Amino acid sequence: MNYYLLFLRILHIGAGAYWVGNVLVLAVFINPALQATGESGQKFVDYLVSKKRFNTESMGAGLMAGIAGLLLYWRDSNGFTSAWVHSGAGIGFGVGAGLALIAFLFGILTDRKMKAITQLREQFQGTPSDEQVSQMQVLRKQQTTYLYICTAALVLALWVMASARYFVF
Over the stretch 71-127, which tens digit does the pLDDT of each residue have? Predict the structure, then answer.
């Protein structure tokens, strides 16, 4: 038994599942709850972002999944040199990796917007000014857009990678 390969597969699948799960919970439950509850919901998200490092852990899991996936792809393709790269599985895993990279980049953008929202909220002195409210709305809209792009890319990457071994081109 090849323990190195087994370790990489467990790391890739486990970290990927953690990353996808966190993003789905954020997109499907937390973000809509935040929009519906306003100030009290924002305090919850501030806690997740600053104290629990929710986004940092998610992105760390994404990075681990990506590194393990790259090492697995390297091994399966014999250093990116074999005909396997152009096979259905090779193309499928490559497309999945591209989608995961897009998700990772939009995850970084989502995290930055969430931190910017938290920083803007810390500047409020009592009731926010109209300009601050306008800034907050713009930041929330951008954060939501980035989050949904990240989520869609991850779900597609998950589907493509889960079925890549069965692709025939």
Answer: 999 999 999 888 999 999 999 999 999 999 999 999 999 999 988 988 888 888 778
For the chain, helix (H) and strand (E) counts, in that order, are 6, 0
pLDDT digit string (tens) for 7-65? 999 999 999 999 999 999 999 999 999 888 877 887 888 788 777 888 889 999 999 99
DSSP letters, 54-123, are HHHHHHHHHHHHHHHHHHHHHHHTTTTTSGGGGSHHHHHHHHHHHHHHHHHHHHHHHHHHHHHHHHHHHH
The total of other beta-carbon atoms located within 10 Å of residue 98's CB is 14
**How distant, in Å, are the alpha carbons of 64, 118, 137, 147, 158 from that of 44?**
27, 11, 18, 17, 29
Give 59's contacts (C-beta < 8 A, 6+ positions apart). Answer: 19, 104, 107, 108, 111
CA neighbor of 164 nearest in space, from 59, 80, 65, 85: 85
The label of the residue with tokens 């937390």 reads: 30
Find out whether 167 and 92 touch, Cβ atoms under 8 Å.
yes
